[in-house]
Amino acid sequence: MIREVMRLTRIEHGVFAVLAVLAAYIISGGKDITIMTVLALSTLFAECFLFTTNDIYNIHEDRINRPNAPLVKGTLSIGVAKLLAIIFLSLTFTPIIVSIVTNILNVLPLLVLSLAVILGFLYNVKFKKMLIINNLILSLVTSLVFLYGASATYFKMNILIITLLFLTSITATMGREVVKGIIDVNGDKVAGIKTIATMYGVETACKVSLILTSISIVLSIPLIVMLTYLTYGVVLIVGIIVTCTILTYGMYLMVKNVDNAEKFRKISLTGMAITITSFFLFSILSFS
User: Fold this and answer.
1) Do 163 and 145 fall within a single domain?
2) Which of 38, 77, 265, 273 is the most exposed place for a label (fewest CB within 10 A)?
3) Structural domain harbouring 194
4) Per-residue pLDDT tens over the stretch 40-84
């Protein structure tokens, strides 16, 4: 059952979200271990809550797009998933509310976290079927990890680096989500989900994805320039360059054949993981 819960919550996504939040906090000048713990726990459980409710509310299209998903296969029941969602939601807000009451944190991180959870839940319940809005909201929620970590310091330092990471993440995630719409086009049509692929065709979706991914690569250029002035900035620079190379290769595959959409999605996720890992290493070196 534990393995199925981990599949339901996509725990690996939660781990990388935690790394991004902690790195943003440290780079923004944060050094409090207690606050790091609060940020890590709230982030992990928020991710678990959103992925769990996503599977609850989107089980119909998952029967086509993800037939091996736990709720579709029946290895976890809807009832258990709903109970887990309530538990995850409680664990998301309890540590941060306690830290605010005890004057460990200010209210700003709670506002950012609440925005991410509310938007993510509304996406699962309703906005997932709305053209463009679906991709925009999901990309925003995914990228808020950078602002969440930095908000715990009131954006004390390196705000431009955090902002560029936030914007780069939004455009790269939107590009990847447009590609996911290509992959899921058949199931999305049945479920009535409006994506660029279902409304305008996979070729148009491919072009939009290439444009968004290209924008994310362009946005990384000023970020790299800024990092050259920081100690250990080379660590993140290497990660960004590797990620941009991976994304460029992914775009080449998509141009070559739109059927390579799944390959693009997988390698773009790998690129995201590389950037977040290098960002975390950069923050740890800067912290020490």
Assistant:
1) no
2) 77
3) 158-288
4) 999 999 999 999 999 999 888 778 778 888 888 888 899 999 999
